[in-house]
Amino acid sequence: MREIELKVGRGVCRIFVEPGLLQRLHEILPAVLRVSDIRRPAGLVIDGNLRKWARPLEKVLRRVGLDPVTVIVPSGEPSKAMTRAETICRTFARARLERGSPIFGFGGGVVGDLAGFVASIYMRGVPFYPIPTTLLAQVDASIGGKTALNLPEGKNLVGTFQQPAAVFIDPLLLFSLPKREFVSGLAEVVKYGVIRDEDLFAFIEKNVQDVLKRGPRVLEEIVARCVRIKVDIVRRDERDRGRRAILNYGHTIGHAIERAGQYRRYLHGEAVSIGMEAEAVIAMQMRLASLEVVAAQNRLLRACGLPTRMERASRDAVLRAISHDKKVLDGRARFVLPERIGRVCTGVEVPEEVLLEALDTVTR
Ligand SMILES: NC(=O)c1ccc[n+]([C@@H]2O[C@H](COP(=O)([O-])OP(=O)(O)OC[C@H]3O[C@@H](n4cnc5c(N)ncnc54)[C@H](O)[C@@H]3O)[C@@H](O)[C@H]2O)c1
Ligand SMILES: [Zn+2]
């Protein structure tokens, strides 16, 4: 088992990564839960598609002396709503969850954001234990202590910072993930390679077939490496004031592509993949990166089964979305651009004509 620690302020978040970890959770939990947490009601929030896990998880929690109160939420983005958070808080209040009662979140980024948000506001904050079940949540969303809910006015407009007490990552859970969701999560994995870790990039290149077959050892390796990179970045910038920006590689254009497709056409990772392609092209046009960097990234994204081109109709909508984001950011749409594999620079302003040309390059 790999254990990675994220120390921030006075607290420590322990992150465990092991294929099969879920089967051993009853052994690991007693050492992780503080003694005062034992024999208390505990919250358990589960994604609707994973409801078959409710009973086994409740059994594990009972075995370690907790009294679980389970809430199953409909799968999908609409569950990240304030009304849903309030309903869960009220369920927990009726079940007499108290200060210090742990809350577990079993699901992808949606459940992680929702249950993490609830844990950060219920009784002014109780310990949160995510058990992420998607690749995106294992390598990204469950690490770093950001939570967010959507408003009708926009995505992720409400949120909190609260580090989880511990994160339990079992790559075997990824077996049941729909292929498209799994591949979409790989975009973030490739991103970590490009922004920070040439060896990770080479490792995925070399093992791409095993990765796509979801070989447990290969998954453990890449998930643990991505977690380490994110931990390292978050440790230096918990409140997202600057350094975390490098995690946004591919996302300036990626978010615009998601928005232009009304969040229906592309999954997050698919949009980020096209965004990374476009931003690498920008880096090349601005003479920050060589053609080889663009080519190597393109090869790997495609080998993973990720898109690097978008529909013709999208370009103008993407441009509009970027200029909208620009307004929100005080007129500063700053880019994170690669210099080589494993290294990026941040805060780059990109001339309009360069952006246009890059968007044309990634348009079918
Ligand atoms: N807080 C953060 O730092 C952070 C970072 C990145 C993304 N996010 C958020 O994460 C969300 C996206 O997360 P996601 O991509 O995990 O989506 P998701 O949680 O919606 O899960 C994707 C789909 O997979 C299903 N699923 C989950 N695990 C499964 C499994 N093991 N087997 C079968 N099906 C499974 C879910 O029911 C859902 O239909 C977005 O709301 C985004 O804003 C948050
Ligand atoms: Zn992302």
Biggest sheet, open or closed, and with what strands and sense? 4 strands, parallel
Classified by CATH, the class of the largest domain is Mainly Alpha
Bound molecules: nicotinamide-adenine-dinucleotide, zinc ion
Q: Write out the CATH superfamily name of the largest domain.
A: Dehydroquinate synthase-like - alpha domain
Uncertain segments of ≥5 residues (pLDDT<50)?
Answer: none
Helix content: 40-55%
Order of helices and strands: EEHEHEHEHEHEEEHHHHHHHEEH
Mean model confidence by pLDDT: 94
Sheet with most strands: strand arrangement: 4-3-5-6
Name the overall outline.
globular
The CATH topology label of the largest domain is Dehydroquinate synthase-like, alpha domain
Q: Give the number of domains.
A: 2
Radius of gyration: 20 Å
Structural overview:
The protein has helices at residues 25-32, 54-63, 82-94, 109-121, 135-141, 179-196, 198-212, 216-236, 251-260, 268-285, 291-303, 314-328, 352-361; strands at residues 2-8, 11-17, 41-47, 67-73, 103-107, 128-132, 146-151, 154-161, 166-169, 334-340, 343-349. The protein is of the alpha/beta class. It has two domains: 2-173, Rossmann fold (3-Layer(aba) Sandwich), CATH 3.40.50; 179-361, Dehydroquinate synthase-like - alpha domain (Dehydroquinate synthase-like, alpha domain). Bound molecules: nicotinamide-adenine-dinucleotide and zinc ion. The site of nicotinamide-adenine-dinucleotide has 29 residues, from helix 4, helix 5 and strand 7.
